[in-house]
Amino acid sequence: MISRADIDRLLAEDVPAGDLTTDALGIGDRRGRMTFAARYDMVLAGVEVALKMVDGLTVVRYAHDGDRLSAGAPILDACGSAADLHRAWKAAQTLLEILSGIASATRAVVDAAAPVPVATTRKTVPGARALSQLAVRAGGGILHRHGLSETILVFPEHRLFLAGESLSETAARLRRTQPEKALNIEVSTIDEAAEAAIAGFDVVQLEKFTPEALAELVSRLPAKGKRARLAAAGGIDPTNAPAYVAAGADLLVTSWPYTARPRDVAVRFFAD
User: Fold this and answer.
1) Chain segment 76-95, per-residue pLDDT in tens
2) Structural domain containing residue 132
3) pTM
4) pLDDT one-digit tens code per residue, 37-61
5) Residues 118 and 76 placed together within one structural domain of the fold
6) How many domains does the chain have?
7) Beta strands 118-120; 74-81: pairing state
8) How far apart, in whole angstroms, are the C-alpha atoms of residue 230 and residue 245?
9) Is 101 exposed, middle or buried (0-12, 13-18, 19+ CB in 10 A)?
């Protein structure tokens, strides 16, 4: 959820003490229009936030988050004073470009992995998680976990403090303390994954397994529906997602979309 206070902070970053150039030129009260359009093919994300950034202007919206846009497709038009146009211009444009880059990359992985779902991690830039996750959803992805308070995911770094406790004992402990939560665990070897899959965990996250290692693990386990779900994680992108799906993954977990290049948004100004 992006609040009004969040929007104001985004704008204030670019205009901390007014727009010096516009004020110095004395053109702030002149009327004009700016148009936003996709420069190349893209999956759009962030338009709802951008609309709040141009609040106070007269706006026409042509597209929605999640839309696949071809080059030249219009996104929105905004009319108002030059001061208000310049205040929102770069912040809104940059936000649309970065979030549409994440959404477009997410859609590429989702399409490559279909019908297996694709979830993104919490490895976002600190302070920008809500925006990044908004873009993931626009691209058709799901969220692996919002943060540490949401889901139980046992890492090897947790197990270091359990003094050799077996995976079955760890799962039983978690069932007692958090009976309503799904249990997830990250493993790095086939033997450990096989043990976790029958120890009572709901999801076994396979850290940097190759598709071949995943296929070997699947061959050693009961059929789907009779064992934990297997989540392939680490280095997942559109080029290798089909191989993980073919090997038997129930879910793909990735942070790859967060490093996507922005998708250019063309902005043009017109004076009335």
Assistant:
1) 999 999 999 999 999 999 99
2) 110-259
3) 0.94
4) 999 999 999 999 999 999 889 999 9
5) no
6) 2
7) unpaired
8) 11
9) buried
